[in-house]
Structures are given as C-alpha cells and as structure tokens.
TrEMBL record:
Annotated organism of origin: Flavobacterium silvisoli
Highest taxon of source: Bacteria
InterPro entries: Glyco_trans_2-like, Nucleotide-diphossugar_trans
SUPFAM superfamilies linked: Nucleotide-diphospho-sugar transferases (SSF53448)
Keyword Glycosyltransferase in record: yes
Record domain Glycosyltransferase 2-like: where: 245-366
CDD domains per record: Glyco_tranf_GTA_type
Protein name: Glycosyltransferase family 2 protein
Keyword annotations of the record: Glycosyltransferase, Transferase
Family: Belongs to the glycosyltransferase 2 family.
A GO molecular-function descriptor: glycosyltransferase activity
A Pfam match: Glycos_transf_2
Amino acid sequence: MIILYHNNKSVTQVISTEGRALSFSEKNSITTELLILAATFPEEKIVWCHCALESQLNVDFIQKNETYNNTLFSFNPYPTPYLTDAIGYVENSVFININKANTYPTWLMSGSAGYAHASVFLNADDAVSTANDFDYFLNSLAKKHMPLGLFCYSEPRLLKSTSAFSEIKARKTSRFTLFKFVKEHYRTRWVFLLLLDFLIYEKKIPLLPLLFSLSYKKKSVESYNLTEVSLLKHSGITEEDTIDVLIPTIGRKKYLYDVLLDLKKQNILPKNVIIIEQNGDVTASSELDYLTTEDWPFTILHTFTHTLGACNARNLALEQLKSKWVFFADDDVRIDADFLHQCLLNCKNYDKKALTLSCLQKGEKFIETKPFQWVSFGTCSSFVASEVLVDIRFSKSFEFGYGEDSDFGKKIRNAGTDVVFFSNPKLLHLKAPMGGFRTKFKFDWSDEKYQPKPSPTVMLYKLTHETTEEINGYKTLLFLKSFGKQGIKNPFRFYTTLKKQWNTSVFWAQKLKERN
C-alpha cells in the first residue's frame, strides 16, 4: 500500500505501508504523481488523502478491505460534491443524491480520501483528463468508466471520524469547471440546458463559462481494458445457499405453470416458491389447481388474496422469506436450467448481494456486457441476499403506478448495498396479454381539471429521493419535450398549464406519501 498526501495543490508526502518515505517531485501535479506511483507499484493499493486528514485516515480498514482491480473508493466529508449541487440539473440518477452514512455507489469522487488498486489508473483510457485538478481527474475517471465495469463507491469508513473536517475549507468549484465537465462528459446540448436552468432557478446567467466550455470536446470511452478481474476466493455453493422465489400473479394460470416447470428443471432447486395470487372478485377462489394436484420438488407457499396490487403482493411474499437468497420473478418469465446456479456464482465470484439481470422481450437483441453498477432495480429479474431485505419493503404509495421498482432499489442502495447489472444469466419476459396491471383502476386524480404531469407516483419518487436541482432539471426537460404536444401553441399559455399540472402532481404525491 502506498499513501499519497496532498494539500489540494500539490503532493506533500508519499509513504509506504511500512512508513518509509518515498521520493516525489514537487513540480508535478497530484494526478501526475499518482499515475507515476501506479506505474512504479502496479500491484499495490494506491491511497490518497488530504494532509489535514492524515490522523483520520483509517489505514487499518484500507489494509483489511478486499481490493479488486475494478473498484474505486473515495469519501467527501462535505455536504456539497466537488461539482456542486448544480450537477443535478444535468443528471438525475441514483448516483447523485447519495447516502454518506453507508457505502454507496456513485461516480462523484473526492480527493479528500480514497484508494484503488494501481491497475485502475494504469488501465484508464486516454480520454480521461489528466489536468492539474486532482478532483476533476477522479470524477472524470469514475464518470467515464463506471458504465464499462469500474465500480465506484462513496465509503465513509475511509475516515475514522469527522473531527478534523473543520481544519480544511471545502473546495469551491467554479462554474467554468462545472461547464467544462458537462461539455466533456455529456452531449453538447447539456451545457445550454445548464445555462437555462441557472437562469430559471437561480436567476444567474453564466454566459462566459458556457462559451469557455465550447472549446472542449467530449471524448468517449468505448471500452475499459481491465486486467482480468480477480474473482473472490470462496468455498463455492453450499447447502446454506438456499433460494426462495417470489412470484406475484394475477390471471396468468398458464404462464405461471411454465415458470414453475422452469424452476423444476433448475440444476440448483429453490427451497421455496412463494406465490401471491390476486383476484379482485370477492366471490372467487384460487384457480391454481396444479399447485396441489402435481408434485413439485420444492415447497410452494401459496397465498390467495382479494387485495390487488403488486406492491402489496410482494410485501406479503417478503414476510414469508426463509432462505438465504431470493429471486424476484414474475408470472410470465422463462429461464434456463442453470439460471439460479449462475446467479449464485455471480454473487459469490464478485462479492455482491443484489443483482439485476438481463430481461429481454421476444425479438430484442442480447448484448453481453461486463457487470456494471445499475441505475434501477428489476422487480421481475433480480437476485438478492435476504439479509439485505430485512427492513426494506415496497411502498404502497406506488401501488398501480410507476416507480415502485426504482424506490425499492434506492432503499437497497441507501442501506449500503449496491445493485449490479449482469447480462448473464438472462431471462425472457413474455409480457403476457392478461393479468398484471391490465386490471382497470381509477386514481383519485382522474377527475382533476389539470391532469398531473408527471404521474404523482413519479413525482413521489423524485420528491423522496432526488435533489432540488435534479427535480428542477427534470422540470425544464419536461417543458421542452411536452411543448406543442398538448395542442397549445402559445408558450406562455402552455407554461401556465404545465405549471398547474406540475402543482397537481406535487399535491397528489404528497397525499400518497401521507397515506403510506
């Protein structure tokens, strides 16, 4: 392990694990020195820390923590990210509004403290800026390579406490830097949208930063040439690795039967299949006769309810979990015989506790990718460790609407567990033409004069999990994308109408939140 200390402007000290001082050039930037260290010590952990935080650096944690050559850790002790909260105008994703109390997936890196295996830096694409600004370099590295398999995290355990934070002034990033970053990492239109958002919501016109940014070009990274990722050494799949399968169903008897046949053929059988059958007809009874008339090589825990709703159904199933792992399925998916086995191997090989898998419809092209950090959560295609779900449930505020999957995934991340996308094993989602959400449901806002825009459940997710800047940036895009599509040509009249629709959405989102 090699530790580089700096004062945000230059390197102040470089030491080895044994405490031996290593030579460095004071003329070089922090980024340059870090890259030199990575090349000199290609098999070591490269650590960086602000010199004022030296006593707070948790060296023991870094030494003991398993390090992969595709993982980047850092921690920003301040409430504002390096790129300021204004980055939310440009990107609204689960990676922006992070929970600093737990390990959390994000590309928002910090020069305050962090570490990675040397190969992370050696394999970085030339498109990553190696400018004098160390924080810029780290954020650029993470932003460009996260979609290609670099795992990036905010890790609070890097520091022992917050007692020394007052000794360092939080860095103030200029708007010139912000616009430059947006121009180099997003499509060109985003710098103009960023200017518009500053004008609308902050009554400022950063015209010079915009013009300055236009001299830069976006450099895309097509691939990340990681050295072979070292898989975790583990004891293999054992008898303790039991699996429960969770399936909500409504009116899809034939399709559910096919799902059960697929589960019956698994080379690692599930221990329990938890089926929540819904039927809104209070006089009806279960139609799933084959659950009892046929023999199944697993226990079927069947609940019949007249209460409709996928959120309620999945919560009923979660209360019945008994195994170490759970596969979130749907009543119209098809899987291969080694599906559950491959899910277990993915979790163990990569030391992950929550996976979302490739879920294709007929005719969709399969694209194989390296595992990467996912922005959502698939309620019909995810494999999760049960320990993660002890205190997590689906919010009934999203019932019959949109956003319950994103909300559930955000809760998992906030609790300290990353959600990783694996292209293999894959599922086929038939999208059966009956059952599901096709049951007619009337929302409380159906008779509103100004219909809510966006949907109140979408608004609820945003109010719950996104920053003010993310919400405002979305609002601007919604206006631009909707203009002319509602038959209103006058922009002022359209804005007035959309504002009323937006306020209606906020009103009902708050009502939904109060009911849950």
